[in-house]
Amino acid sequence: MPSNDVRILLQAAVPTAAVGAVAAVVSAVVAGGRGAIGAVVATLVVIVFMGLGLYVLQRTAKSLPHLFQAMGLMLYAAQILLLFVFVAAFKDTTLFHPKSFALTLVAATLVWIAAQTRAHMKSKILYVEPDSTPASTASSTGDKPDKSGHSS
Of 1, 10, 77, 119, which is most buried, counting CB atoms within 10 Å of its CB? Predict the structure, then answer.
């Protein structure tokens, strides 16, 4: 993973983990140990799902850039659907408190999306890769660049 992708991943995962920790403390106070376990499990599910989604999306952007937007929409729809499946599958569990799990899952997902959006907006990603050696192409055609670097 390039360093820019890792930076975006960290800028999304750290706030999500912080919200998960706060949710675990609040859930522990409100619902006891089962509430804390539910909040921690929900936070881990969000970080893993969204982190894998970001990884898949970055790989798609590099290998199939023409499918990037469609893949992003499909990926987020699939992630939200899978999160709903998790809530439905664990609604009657005795392992953890289901309401703490569901509320933390929603809160962590919203924080992840907001943090990832902010990270993308603040990153300086080139939309067009510049030529590595513009002077070499000018010299091969016989044109000499002027003072501004453009060939005449």
Answer: 119
Record the tokens describing residue 90, joined without a space: 């664990």
Max Cα–Cα distance, the chain, nearest Å = 77
Token pair listed for 100: 């703490």
| Global confidence as pTM | 0.73
Q: What is the pLDDT of residues 93-141, one digit of tens each?
A: 888 888 898 899 999 999 999 998 888 788 766 666 666 665 555 555 5
Q: Rounded CA gap, 133 and 130, in Å?
A: 9
Nearest to 105 by CA among 19, 11, 9: 19
C-alpha separations of 55 from 41, 47, 61, 75, 137 in Å: 21, 12, 10, 11, 36
